[in-house]
Amino acid sequence: xxxxxxxxxxxxxxxxxxxxxxxxxxxxxxxxxxxxxxxxxxxxxxxxxxxxxxxxxxxxxxxxxxxxxxxxxxxxxxxxxxxxxxxxxxxxxxxxxxxxxxxxxxxxxxxxxxxxxxxxxxxxxxxxxxxxxxxxxxxxxxxxxxxxxxxxxxxxxxxxxxxxxxxxxxxxxxxxxxxxxxxxxxxxxxxxxxxxxxxxxxxxxxxxxxxxxxxxxxxxxxxxxxxxxxxxxxxxxxxxxxxxxxxxxxxxxxxxxxxxxxxxxxxxxxxxxxxxxxxxxxxxxxxxxxxxxxxxxxxxxxxxxxxxxxxxxxxxxxxxxxxxxxxxxxxxxxxxxxxxxxxxxxxxxxxxxxxxxxxxxxxxxxxxxxxxxxxxxxxxxxxxxxxxxxxxxxxxxxxxxxxxxx
Length: 406
Prior knowledge:
By secondary structure, this protein is an all-alpha fold. The chain has 18 helices and no strands.
């Protein structure tokens, strides 16, 4: 259970609470395919991927590539991952987290970024055990706080239309925003370019999910030190929790859209230039919670943000220390030296994130930004791993070509 909780705490962050809720506001339930397909993907990872990793005592993804192919492939992919984690994932989490703190608590955006960065560094330096123990508590708070916000959003809808009851609210959402309940978007939908219908569900999204959950240091590291039965149970528990995520984040976004269309949140949903900002949907709802529930929901959001930042920083530190520094800079470095370099790496990575994150304010919807830039390397990464695992004839030259073309 601790492995599953840690995996979810690292995976679910501001990009889901803020970004995916914003997609719920603008696009609707279709964005949930990312989460529900992720649940199926995690089952595949638990059954087929984990035995290979644990049998070969793999601790980092570049290590797998080094042992299966050669050091060149491993190094190229290690650099790719470091750039992606620092310049896309870390910065976007800081940006969305600070945006949430600004809208809900009135905290200055820049101070929010700095505060989240410092808090995450403190937790990360404690190591994976500290992250793992705190993640269990954070997931409990995340689920309870998220469900409280969903209930409030539905209650607001039922009160606005004078039809009390959660189920009445769900019916009202379907009635008032029918286009937001299409899981497969039609070609005339303005968001078809972001989620192009059935082709994504039966094709590209499987590649994206399997690469993210099965070939990603940030996710897989939670289970690499466990026994196979323990790792599998943890990953399957995470799959179960993934089924709840659309209920926690997408439904509130749709509710906010319906309320906005009916005259509520007219000013709150606008940015400084007077344009509608979908990523404001979830923070706006948080502001309407009663004091006690608002504290729980706010704690859930903050916990998710910090857990993801800590997990991402830990992955950056691990990859740089073991796959770059130890391999090429100081092969005979002691354990103490590696720990020290790992900490310096965390400081530098978080510093870069704090500097770059404010530049993301120009984005309309940050979740799409994350998916688009992550997808640049996803097909190549997936091909290298899946063929390396299950096709013995895959060569190092072929993997190197795929890595360079990625």
